[in-house]
Amino acid sequence: MSDFDTIIKNGLIITAADRYVADIGIKEGRIAALGQALGNAAEIIDADGLWVMPGGIDAHCHLDQPLGDGAVMADDFHSGTRSAACGGTTTVIPFAAQQKGQSLRAAVDDYHRRSEGKAFIDYAFHMIVTDPTETVLKEELPALIEEGYSSFKIYMTYDDLKLNDREILKVLALARREGAMVMVHAENADCIAYLTELLEACGKTAPVYHGEAHSTIAEREATHRAISLAELIDVPVLIVHVSGPEAIEQIRWAQSRGLRVYGETCPQYLMLTATDLDQEGFEGAKCVCSPPPRDEAAQQAVWQALESGVFQVFSSDHAPFRYEDPKGKKLHGETACFKHIPNGIPGLETRLPILFSEGVIKERIDATRFVALTATNPAKIYGLYPRKGTIAIGSDADLTLWDSRARTTVRNAELHHDVDYTPYEGLELTGRPVLTLCRGQVVSRDGRLAGEPGFGQFLECGKPQPARPRGEAKGF
Ligand code: DUC
Ligand code: ZN
Ligand code: ZN
């Protein structure tokens, strides 16, 4: 009889803390041993020359999310997790979104129905709280947090999603009481509405003007306000999809004062700029997301904040809408004002290869920081650590083997999502995930799918754990 189901031999293991060469023994989906000469196994995988990292955790993506305006997301749990797996990700955390007037429990139940039996990799849920009624705050949220839904997102913009400051304070107080993590979409709704009105009045309705309406000042103000509200309640908060230096300065300022403020950024803020919204015809709609991509100086600021530890999390914010689709980007036709274009871009499969190539290979961040940003910190912050997000005895055998020398070119035709474009078409990358295992099972090999739908399990999340930024700001 074999000692292990699988042994991965001779790989360079990289965690958020260390790198060393060792063999990994896997038994019943978990890491059972780390060392040398481990014994025998039903399957031996030779990882000589490869880097072995924890499977990616994409802690911010949208799959099959019901939307109020008639738009339909291109990816569900089947195509979304298929795409994630092929890009080296082994856990996704999309959003069970409450519609105003709906019970939060009903939103979560509905989301379970949407995910059941479809996922290729493991998944948990964040919730989106849009209607914090007394029942939601006193009964539903405490019960749901206890049951393993320990994080939720709130919005400061979008008429059908946003909370006012008083509602935000109530939600933050609840999070403090129950030990939940609050993610904030920080943009000032009134600034955006005001600027949109001005732009529309002078006929500036093309996709490029989305970038002007969603001003950096609107993002900075809301980021500062979210931090202040969290400080008032004395609760940790995570600012999602940060686009540039204005919001980064607010987060850095808060961290330097010892506040428990976390930051997340995404590939679009490293790889795209406002000029990508300014394309022939309606093509710029493909890159409409909120906050929007900024300028090259903003990209540099985002890189620097990744390197210096202002950001703890790097997510895709995959929000999939097809371009050639009356329920996608062209919901209101090709002449529609930017304000009617569904917000979001795809990125589940390209998230890790982009950060690996542009970050690690180009030596902007080191490989341990890559692991922290893409797996370990999200696992800690969202209560999945140490089951997920690391390579340690007892952890799930969620592993991605990287060929750090392989060169690829991003082609939408080769991606596994159901979106009809990628904003990164033609991008040349170095480094590629060549084998991805979720709980010891191979889910992708050489960029191709190798798993089965329904293998992915729902994960109950525990209470958030601290993920310290470099510099060890006090209070974390
Ligand atoms: N916020 C997100 O988190 N995703 C897509 C669009 C948005 O506004
Ligand atoms: Zn958002
Ligand atoms: Zn999002």
Keywords:
binds zinc ion; disordered C terminus; single chain; alpha/beta; 476 residues; binds dihydropyrimidine-2,4(1H,3H)-dione; seven-stranded parallel beta sheet; 12 helices
- Find the CATH superfamily: Metal-dependent hydrolases
Please tell me the CATH architecture by its name. Answer: Alpha-Beta Barrel
Radius of gyration: 21 Å
| Oligomer designation | single chain
CATH class: Alpha Beta
Which percent range fits the helix content? Answer: 25-40%
Mean of pLDDT: 97
The number of helical segments is 12
How many angstroms does the end-to-end distance come to? 47 Å
- What would you call the shape? globular
What is the strand tally? 19
Unreliable spans are: 470-476
In CATH terms, what is the fold-level topology? TIM Barrel
The hetero compounds bound to this protein are:
dihydropyrimidine-2,4(1H,3H)-dione, zinc ion
Strand content: 15-25%
**Count of discrete domains:** 1
The structural class is alpha/beta
* Major β-sheet annotation: 9 strands, mixed
Could you outline the blueprint of secondary structure elements for this entry?
Blueprint: E1 4-14, E2 19-27, E3 30-35, E4 41-46, E5 51-54, E6 56-58, H1 77-86, E7 89-92, E8 95-97, H2 104-115, E9 122-123, E10 126-128, H3 134-146, E11 151-155, H4 165-178, E12 181-185, H5 189-201, H6 208-213, H7 216-233, E13 237-239, H8 245-256, E14 261-265, H9 268-271, H10 296-308, E15 313-314, H11 351-361, H12 367-381, E16 399-409, E17 428-438, E18 441-445, E19 448-449
Parallel strand pairs: 1-4, 1-5, 6-7, 7-9, 8-10, 10-11, 11-12, 12-13, 13-14, 14-15
Antiparallel strand pairs: 1-2, 2-3, 5-16, 16-17, 17-18, 18-19
Helix pairs in contact: 3-4, 4-7, 7-8
This protein binds dihydropyrimidine-2,4(1H,3H)-dione and zinc ion (ZN) (2 copies).
Dihydropyrimidine-2,4(1H,3H)-dione is lined by residues 62, 185, 241, 289-290, 317, 319, 343-344.
